[in-house]
């Protein structure tokens, strides 16, 4: 927690209390749907933003904005179409990560257990099955998986005679990667949740160009059994552009049961070194081919196959792998907008609800049975022993297996949590946790209330530290606007651009900011307009915002040149000492107008 708070840095600075602690801000409840209808929700855009919308050809009626103070009861700085339901794209992860932090705790970890239903003999031969039980670890990368198989080998298992049985029962979700909502099922961001996911089910090709020979050498990760990979791809001339389409990737099934990856296209030499990631296999096949290769490298042998099933009660756990803490996963989710992590967080919250309710129901059942037994006539010890001579040896009943969590379970937990925050669940509907869904919708006002709740949360330091820092890291690293003054999650779909997070204005106040642009015709200038929203908030209370464009940057350069010329003339007339600092002053005055130009 201390490290996370330090990462958040001076942005968190607020009123100090005795002992050096920061005063915790109070969260204002969000307006209900009925109240929202009575509140003007479409104030006109302030002049600087109206000019920015015109400059970047963004229709103000396709924009939603809410800018509210993060603490206290101050009035919103701007509410523009703030009660219009819109798709949030990946800013939906702002909801998912805060929900997960509060429901699971910062140190939550996912365990993947490796079980056997028999003891290996003296030679390490396991005459039974190996069971791999996942709990939803979204970050079980190949390096960790290979290490765990080495540990399994070291534990005494050398040869597996049976099958490798994968227990995915914690999540009750189908594999829908091939039917992704955007029709691009092979893209890694569309991989379906899997309680026993390894390495994001990702197949990665690294291209290392050799321009003299006109080829790029290919490195492949992870290693797989029974898959043939090419070692090179031809280089071509021309711009890099949509280089992934130009590769012409195909995965072919061969008659002998193996596979062959092929690149029928080329890689433009202008691209330089590139990484190409793809989902090319169903989850069982991916697991089996990766497991066979990794187990062989560990020194083991295996004669069976991969299949799905539950771990039997009599099986014993030999080793277990623990994931990174939730704080690290939340940071990866928000800074780099990792969709599969967000979906796993959402389902884990649902699984936590299912398991909690199952435990409560089981304990209530046992309590009721005990109460019923207490009502029965008392028997002598001799009578009880005669009727049930093995009663003292009878084991306590075990809780039956718990069903897997569905998206409906996660949504139910989210709805209850939002109500606790004073936010109408109808105003924030998250379908699967990631934003990759046309069913997900939010309003800007409700998202601003969610951000206020995040600021008031006991997990505020970890939450803020998980967000991209404007102009410095994550998905905001190339957007040099209000550098280091904002913590902003971005959203990007074909017809949606969005931002959500926190911005510190120049007068020291901190604001919860949510804004989005919708519609295909508004996309070319969508990011630039949203960057101007960030700048407008940053300048609140200090001076009017000047829209930053290529034109204003050019004017700033011309003004700097003019002032430099005037300074040079003045120097000749009055002497170097009197005008020595004039060019420096001019440069300092105009730097802001040139250093933070929004991306086109």
Question: How would you characterize this protein structure?
Answer:
This protein is α/β, with parallel strands linked by helices. It has three domains: 2-105 and 407-538, 3-Layer(aba) Sandwich (Beta-lactamase), CATH 3.40.710.10; 111-324, 3-Layer(bba) Sandwich (D-tyrosyl-trna(Tyr) Deacylase, Chain: A); 550-595. It has 17 helices and 23 strands. The chain has helices spanning 2-8, 33-38, 47-55, 93-104, 142-154, 243-247, 283-298, 326-335, 339-375, 381-387, 407-420, 444-456, 460-465, 526-538, 550-574, 576-579, 582-595; strands at 63-69, 78-80, 111-116, 125-126, 130-133, 159-160, 164-167, 203-210, 215-221, 227-228, 232-236, 249-253, 259-263, 267-268, 274-278, 301-302, 306-308, 316-322, 428-429, 441-442, 486-493, 496-504, 510-518. It has a five-stranded antiparallel sheet. A five-stranded mixed sheet has the order 17-7-5-3-18, covered by helices on one side. Strands 14-11-9-8-15 form a five-stranded mixed sheet. A hairpin with an 8-residue loop joins strand 1 (63-69) and strand 2. The longest helix has 37 residues, at 339-375. The two termini are 38 Å apart.
Structural class: alpha/beta
Helix content: 25-40%
What is the CATH first-level class name of the largest domain?
Alpha Beta
- Overall pLDDT confidence: 86
Largest sheet composition:
5 strands, antiparallel
CATH superfamily of the largest domain: DD-peptidase/beta-lactamase superfamily
Share of β-strand residues: 15-25%
Number of strands: 23
Q: How many separate domains?
A: 3
Runs in which pLDDT lies below 50 for 5 or more consecutive residues are: 1-40, 574-600
As a whole number of angstroms, the C-alpha radius of gyration is: 30 Å
């Amino acid at each position: 927690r201390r490290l996370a708070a330090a990462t958040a840095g001076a942005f968190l600075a607020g009123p100090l209390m005795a002992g050096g602690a920061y005063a915790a801000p109070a969260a204002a409840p969000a307006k209900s749907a009925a109240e929202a209808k009575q509140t003007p929700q479409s104030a006109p855009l302030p002049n600087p933003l109206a000019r920015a919308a015109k400059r970047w050809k963004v229709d103000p009626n396709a924009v939603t904005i809410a800018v509210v103070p993060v603490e206290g009861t101050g009035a919103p700085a701007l509410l523009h179409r703030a009660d219009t339901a819109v798709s949030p794209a990946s800013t939906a992860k702002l909801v998912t990560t805060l929900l997960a932090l509060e429901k699971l705790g910062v140190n939550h970890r996912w365990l993947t257990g490796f079980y056997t239903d028999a003891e290996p003999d003296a030679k390490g031969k396991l005459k039974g099955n190996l069971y791999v039980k996942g709990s939803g670890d979204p970050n079980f990368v190949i390096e960790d998986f290979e290490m765990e198989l080495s540990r399994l080998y070291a534990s005494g298992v050398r040869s597996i005679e049976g099958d490798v049985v994968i227990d995915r029962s914690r999540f009750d979700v189908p594999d829908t990667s091939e039917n992704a909502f955007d029709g691009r099922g092979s893209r890694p961001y569309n991989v379906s949740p899997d309680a026993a996911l390894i390495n994001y089910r990702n197949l990665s090709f690294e291209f290392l160009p050799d321009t003299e020979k006109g080829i790029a050498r290919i490195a492949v990760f992870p290693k797989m059994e029974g898959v043939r990979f090419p070692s090179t791809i031809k280089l071509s001339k021309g711009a890099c552009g949509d280089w992934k389409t130009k590769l012409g990737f195909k995965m072919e099934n061969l008659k002998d049961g193996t596979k062959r990856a092929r690149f029928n296209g080329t890689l433009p030499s202008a691209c330089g070194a590139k990484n190409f990631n793809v989902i090319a296999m169903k989850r069982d096949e991916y697991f089996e081919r990766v497991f066979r290769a990794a187990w062989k490298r560990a020194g083991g042998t295996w004669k069976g196959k991969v299949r799905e099933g539950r771990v039997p009660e009599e099986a014993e756990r030999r080793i277990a792998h623990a994931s990174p803490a939730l704080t690290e996963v939340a940071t990866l989710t928000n800074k780099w907008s990792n969709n599969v992590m967000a979906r796993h967080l959402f389902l884990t919250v649902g699984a936590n609800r299912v398991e909690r309710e199952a435990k409560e129901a089981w304990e209530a059942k046992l309590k009721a049975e005990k109460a019923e037994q207490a009502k029965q006539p008392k028997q002598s010890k001799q009578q009880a022993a005669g009727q049930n001579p093995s009663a003292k040896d009878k084991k306590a009943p075990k809780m039956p297996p718990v069903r897997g969590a569905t998206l409906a379970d996660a949504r139910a937990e989210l709805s209850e949590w939002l109500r606790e925050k004073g936010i109408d669940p109808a105003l924030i509907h998250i379908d699967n946790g990631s934003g990759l869904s046309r069913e997900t919708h939010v309003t800007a006002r409700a998202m601003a209330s969610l951000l206020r709740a995040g600021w008031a949360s006991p997990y505020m330091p970890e939450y803020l530290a998980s967000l991209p820092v404007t102009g410095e890291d994550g998905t905001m690293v190339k957007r040099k606007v209000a550098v280091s003054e904002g913590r902003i999650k971005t959203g990007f779909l074909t017809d949606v651009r969005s931002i959500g997070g926190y911005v510190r204005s120049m007068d020291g106040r901190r604001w919860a900011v949510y804004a989005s642009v919708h519609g295909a015709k508004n996309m070319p200038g969508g990011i630039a307009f949203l960057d101007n929203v960030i700048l407008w908030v940053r300048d609140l209370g200090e001076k009017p915002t000047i829209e930053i464009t290529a034109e204003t940057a050019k004017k700033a350069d011309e003004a700097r040149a003019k002032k430099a010329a005037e300074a040079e003339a003045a120097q000749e007339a009055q002497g170097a000492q009197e005008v020595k600092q004039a060019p420096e002053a001019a440069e300092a005055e105009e730097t802001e107008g040139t250093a933070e130009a929004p991306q086109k």
